[in-house]
Amino acid sequence: MNRRVLFRLWAPVAVLLALATPALAQKSADQVAVDAAKKYSGASLNIIWPAGLGALGQKNYAAPLFKQLTGVTVNIVEAPPAQVYVKTVAEHRAGTGAYDVISVQPAWLADESEAGILEPLDRWVDQYGFRQSLRDIEPAYRDNWMTVKGKIMAIPDDGDVIILFYRKDLFNDPANRSAFKAKYGYDLAVPATWEQFGQIGQFFTDKYAPQLYGAAIIHDAASMQYFYQERFRNAGGRFFDVASMKSQINNEIGVRVAAQMQSEAKFMPPGSENWNPVNVLTAWLAGKVAMMTWWPPPGRWSEGYGTNEEALKWVPESKVKGKVGYALPPGGHPELALGWCLGVSTHSKKQELAYLYIQWVNSEKISLERVQLPYTLRDPFRASHFTSAEYLARWPGAKDYLETLKKGAQAGLLDLSVRNTFQYQDSLGKAMQRLMAGENPKPVMDETAADWDKITQRTGADLQRATYQDWAAKPNAYPR
After folding, report:
1. Claim to verify: residue 192 and residue 66 sit in the same structural domain
2. What CA–CA distance (Å, rounded) separates 167 from 289?
3. Would the pLDDT of 126 be above 80?
4. Cα–Cα distance between 353 and 198 in angstroms, integer?
5. Range of the structural domain that residue 346 is part of
6. What pLDDT, in 10s, does the model give residues 368-404?
7. Is pLDDT above 60 for 10?
8. What CATH number is given to the structural domain containing 361?
């Protein structure tokens, strides 16, 4: 085809684009979505959403506001977080179209995309001018949580990252600093390695127990497996040998990391071997531990931000207000653990409207309001969130908090995301429970690796290899 023919074919399209693009450019992404959704006034959308505190941001804020703006009713169908995946898969197999918008953990993204559960979003992203807005999303979330094989399958809805909280008053105390250096030969500071974390934790426990212990870490199976994923890769581990697709979690690195995690219980509060997130949070807010690793919300709650809200009555009064420091965990590459994205169901009869809601709720304006809601489990994930003057003024230490979350968003590690990820996670979580029960790390990890190999064989090694290589090629799959 010669250039003249190409020009004649392309020219009308170019004119239309030239006319349409400025109109979209003059509107914010949320307004574009609202204007387009108004034609569906009177309709309703069903969203499957993790139950509990995280759902309040939808039920109390986003859904009512969207109905006010568009006339569209948004129904929040709650399910326990661990059951969202199971219920999504079951609904897909039944083909009922019960859900229009799907809550997706990034670890499930490949699985749900390959299974045909999620509808590719590129056509709507371009039609409604959202692609430029997506560039404001921090690269770790944008470049890792959205696409499968080059297609946009979901839009980030949360900025989950595990950070280290520490007691500045204890770390800066002259007597503590002097005694610590005399014992260990280096300055008391935020731990750069897990070996230092262990020494600092033991130091505080030796000095203050039983009033205060060196640290607390979430040890329930569902959470602890994320911490193993983080520490294994920071130590140089790789989940699979690509050639054979044999699991590598029981190699020398994997066993050493497992043994280290097991040994840290000795300087943590008695009985904390099975603590869940609420147990750890309660001890932290009560001033009973010097360090903890957790998701971002305690940064707000430690300072009392929003804890007068009815939804946060369960949060204990903070005894550490003004004493909290924030840092990346040892190793410098924190786990982007859990996290949530939103996608459109292939069985939805209202796919365009479902997409428009996703664009609206995760636009710059609406997402900024949502991540500042004290009672919702949604954390900053856009570059503009970290620099918001409004957010920076929320409490005196908000600047340090947001800077730490931004660093985590840049250096964080993805949760493993392959076919049947849920099964690998469940297997690894059971291994963590066995470790905290005191079992020998080597046989525990050997048996877990064998279980992983069985999952791979059932899935198909070649099929899994292709999915794993696509995941491993993403910028934040392994430390770089």
Report:
1. no
2. 8
3. yes
4. 51
5. 3-156+341-377
6. 999 999 888 899 999 999 999 999 999 999 999 999 9
7. no
8. 3.40.190.10
pLDDT score recorded for residue 8: 42
What letter does residue 144 receive in the DSSP assignment?
A: H
Residue 446 shares a structural domain with residue 433: yes
**pLDDT band per the 50, 70, 90 thresholds, residue 307:** confident
Per-residue pLDDT tens for 15-37? 334 434 555 568 999 999 999 99
Calculate mean pLDDT across residues 62-84.
95
Residues in the chain: 480
DSSP character string of 443-470:
HHHHHHHHHHHHHHHHH-HHHHHHHHHH
Give the C-alpha separation, 315 to 317, whole Å: 7
Q: Report CA-CA distances (Å) from 126 to 17, 39, 118, 365, 425.
A: 11, 19, 18, 19, 35
Rounded Cα distance, 268 and 209, in Å = 9
Same domain, 106 and 255: no
Q: Is residue 363 part of a domain?
A: yes
Q: Are 148 and 182 within one domain?
A: no
Using DSSP bridges, classify how beta strands 73-79 and 341-345 pair: parallel, antiparallel or unpaired: unpaired
Q: Does some domain include residue 136? A: yes
**Whether residue 26 is found in the same domain as residue 150:** yes
